[in-house]
Amino acid sequence: MFDFTKRAKRVINEYAQQEAKRLGHDMIGPEHILLGLLREEDSVAIKILKNLNIDLNELKKEVERRARQGGNTLLIDISPNPDKYQKIIDYSKEEAKRLKHNYVGTEHIL
Prior knowledge:
Layout: E1 3-4, H1 6-22, E2 27-28, H2 30-39, H3 44-51, H4 56-69, E3 79-80, H5 82-98, E4 103-104, H6 106-109
């Protein structure tokens, strides 16, 4: 069993939902989780992206642009896209296990 770090929980439970709502989507998908990761400025995921010389502002703009192209109508109750959302959670746990970590952090979600 893996515990999610506070940052990881915040990304998937708060920020992803806020990003979906902000973009007018009715389901949480990978794009919203990535945008949520970009909001956790001091996270391991951000350090990884910076080490790869990825321009975080450009990444955010591109994710938002693509998300808007396939946008859904906003509904009051935003729920995760069950398949995509669960795959991200499962892959995050697998990555933590592969790295022999006993937690799931932003780096595993990325």
